[in-house]
Amino acid sequence: MEKERETLQAWKERVEHELDVVVAFWLEHSHDQEHGGFFTCLGRDGQVYDDLKYVWLQGRQVWMYCRLYRKLERFRRPELLNAAKAGGEFLLRYARVAPPAKKCAFVLTRDGRPVKVQRTIFSECFYTMAMNELWRVTGDAQYQSEAVEMMDQIVHWVREDPSGLGRPQLPGAPAAESMAAPMMLLSLVEQLGEADDELAGSYAELGDWCARRILRHVQRGGQAVLENVSEDGEGLSGCLGRHQNPGHALEAGWFLLRHAVRRGDPKLRAHVIDKFLLLPFRSGWDPDHGGLFYFQDADGLCPTQLEWAMKLWWPHSEAMIAFLMGYSESGDSALLNIFYQVAEYTFRQVSAASWSQRCGGDRSCCRRAPRVLSLTGNEGRFPMCF
């Protein structure tokens, strides 16, 4: 037990150091002092190589600054709060394409003009998260009002009428349901309900609905988590129905774990650990070179996504969160050992030091990335640096 505590403490310190380095980088290089908001296309040296502003990333950065400011004493600094507020004001002014309508742009120009709209809910979801966190750190009711109103709109699109998203109902398209929408809604239920009994109560039924919809993606007699199912929760034919995303399943797993804890449901907790943590990890981990594959086919056929064998950083981050959370809630040391396995791989392959070793130290091949985005399936080479 003492050894375990020492190892966990060492990892905590390692992650804290990495967090400090990353936050310092974004504080120094990402803030647009002229137009507001944040640059997100940054080279490893901080150079801006594209000034387009993606609304979901703007929302994530506002959320992250606020959450760090609110939760960790060492980040309770005016520059974080002021940057979050400036980012929030940029979103308030420009994120929505045609106010008072709620649909948000996917991409904006540097000065806030819409470039592209996606027919999904995800820009709006991160807008909601940003506004709710801003309210929590500032106490400004305007931000909370924005968050709740946008949440109501998202729920309407998902559960009642998606026509406002602009997605046509084509006669040949299968009636499929992706895991992504109920996942994001479940995350928002937790976000808005934190320390707010009234909102938590009003979203309780929605949270249960989201959990049920996600759980339907466990298919093939409980042997696969599929990204897409029919509207009735059944399997689909073709590549769409065989599509697997191990990182997404692990992310859904820790969303569901948090839901199970909130509901006081140990049976659900055990089911989630088995089907959304262990199952996708076992199928998704590369036994030869390590790392999680980006996509898989449930029948072992070649996925149609050309990047299927890449090892992106984000599934490994989701896996580390999921297995630490699973260990924290269950005390199962096997989950902790998987965390160590994923963490060792991730820090070895994605750290700045490993990049320097692979590109000769001058970083000439990776000017465009503050952290690795993707690795090939074989031996962790780096083909994609944006």
TrEMBL record:
Catalytic activity: an N-acyl-D-glucosamine = an N-acyl-D-mannosamine
Enzyme class: isomerase
InterPro entries: 6-hairpin_glycosidase_sf (IPR008928), 6hp_glycosidase-like_sf (IPR012341), AGE/CE (IPR010819), AGE_dom (IPR034116)
Pathway per the UniProt entry: Amino-sugar metabolism; N-acetylneuraminate degradation
Protein EC: 5.1.3.8
GO MF annotation, one: N-acylglucosamine 2-epimerase activity
Top-level taxon of origin: Eukaryota
Gene Ontology BP, a term: N-acetylneuraminate catabolic process
Keyword terms of this UniProt record: Isomerase
Gene3D superfamilies recorded: 1.50.10.10
Family: Belongs to the N-acylglucosamine 2-epimerase family.
Subunit structure comment from the entry: Homodimer. Forms a heterodimer with renin and inhibits its activity.
Protein name as catalogued: N-acylglucosamine 2-epimerase
Lineage: Eukaryota, Metazoa, Chordata, Craniata, Vertebrata
